[in-house]
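Practice problem: 2-dehydro-3-deoxygalactonokinase
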Amino acid sequence: MYNVYIDSGTSNTRAYLVKKFELIDTEAINVGTKDSAIAGNNNVLLTAMKECYDKLLLNNKLQEIDIVDIWSSGMVTNTFGITEVEHISIPITGQKLLDKIYLHNEEKIFRRELKLICGAKTAQPGDIIDIENVERMNNVRGEEIEVVGMVATKILPRDKKCVMISPGSHTHMCYVKDGAIIDIASNFTGELNYAIVKSTILGGELSEKDIKMNCEYVNKGYQYLKQYGICRALYIVHGTKVFNVCSDDVRSQIMAGIITGSVVDLLGVKISEDWKDVEKIIIIGSKLYVESYRILCEEIIPDVSVEVVYGYEGKSFALCGFLEILRLRNQT
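Answer key — structure tokens:
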């Protein structure tokens, strides 16, 4: 018998067919909760998820009855996901995610029960969040399962205090201690870059490719950010086009330094004030721009070792986390 696991984010959705603990097949589509938010309802996301699911069944000559359970994580528990589900309070482990699985009867598209893996939040039960303390609150949807996968594969060693950085539409930093998420710091990054590219004059002045990062240009963007603030720094990027100073590729690297720099600055503050015992920073991601995080971590936080990882034995860390949850369930 088979399980299907669907990992859906802000911009992309990936579906995995699993038999016991073995990956059999995958499908992906460039649709996420961003598209549902724009449409004003979640039909576009559910339809995309079902399309991936149907392809997995068709390509592997399976029927609905062959699938024991459909699991999903990420932004599916957001308002514009499958259904809104409250985050689980930190600390977070794989066992806690399993214990808090949310069962949802999806009647519109799948017409069957879905097992939803909840996100994580720093707020504790009973906390009252208002304008005076909201800046201290953070949450993730998707990164919690990635951390479980990274702990299970020993990429995040249980005997070390680490920070996991997951660059994306929203870049989250998870402080991990003894194999559990202890704290979170969240940032608005990829969507900011997308908005700049799609809705400003800079869109025609930046590279459309995922380009290799150069220390000199990434650091230059960070210097502009520190000296002038983000609004002026972005205009300087535009100025390099006006005065024909550099290529689109170089401008994109400067832009990466500006956006990434604000995240790494925050990390530096967290390590100096709250996460003082951090021994290692691990950055995950397969795109070239992720290197901008390594470059600036080494520049801003030189006393902590930094590593970039892209997955484990060809699997995403979200999938590794799901497989760990299956193993934990099998033990009970």
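Discussion: Residues 197 and 204 are 8 Å apart (CA to CA). Students who identified this feature from the tokens alone can consider the problem solved.
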